[in-house]
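=== RUN LOG ===
request id: a7f3
mode: sequence -> structure
chains: 1
length: 340
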Amino acid sequence: MKIALDVMGGDFAPQNPIGGVKLALESLPAITKLFLVGDPAAIEKELKAQGVSSPKLEIVPASQVVDMADSGLDAVRKKKDSSISVAVNLVKDGKAEAVVSAGHTGAAVTASLIKLRTLTHIERPAIASIMPSLTKHWVLIDAGANPDSEPAHLVQNAIMGSAFARHVLGRDNPTVGLMSNGTEEEKGNALCKETSKLLRHTAGINFIGNVEGHDVWDTPPDVVVCDGFTGNVILKNAEALAHSIFSMVKSEIKSSFWTKIGGLLAKPAFKRVHTRTNPDEVGGMPLLGLRGITIIAHGSASPFAMKNAIRQACESIQHQVGPHIEAAATAHSISLHARS
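=== RESULT ===
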């Protein structure tokens, strides 16, 4: 498997991306080539500092870096030799099978959309995030690619999320819920109400209706659909809340001798819960709906998270969800034309 890595993307670049490369080379034998895209001098310096060397590595020069202040569109138009643009070009040209970046999400989405193009009958790509709950993992889509969406886009999110849940998570007939402020049909804003009407008549989608915020952490459907603004708020709030709760529990455990003893006894359980809720375990989120594979990692991703983002790229190459999404979207389009 050949993967392009945006080494200059992220809050701790190039250290953490290179740290992820080191871990990936040790644990992911399916990788045949890792293209390290960015400033060659900076990459070579970091490879030497971390003692990373392999014939599987190839440095690809890129003279520009996207700043967080750049807009996604300007980053692509004005910085044509940025590390993310060069990395996506490797996928476009067939040299790499997937691209991984922890950099500017808007730039990664825009570069991928412009250069790779969307699948047939998919208007906009969407970020799929695998989320934890008390009972199972579920798919949040869109987790941040499109803050402003129309009802048709959310229907496409449902189609993409269902295909992902079916072929990656192994759910035979994945259930789909629409994020809203109440389970009743009349609840929600104009976007939710119109999307709900469309989803109830979308062939091939096992739509169960609206879901609320508390539902997704207890007994969620397999796929939760929303616009990118709402999804990104849910994602970041969940990550921050999990971190805060663990910090509060740790503080309380240290407050007395007896709670320290209890904490030692419960330590294995705490570790298991931390593993289930730690976003670093997932590493990256696939940008679905494109003619190519883009994995978006957190800007603050640790080396462990970067390794898992690269693993996500390998798994995406293996699963090849794109053709399944295109087939489902085409069937939906044919169904719409038959009804009209």
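=== NOTES ===
The longest helix spans residues 228-253.
The two ends are 44 Å apart (CA to CA).
=== END ===
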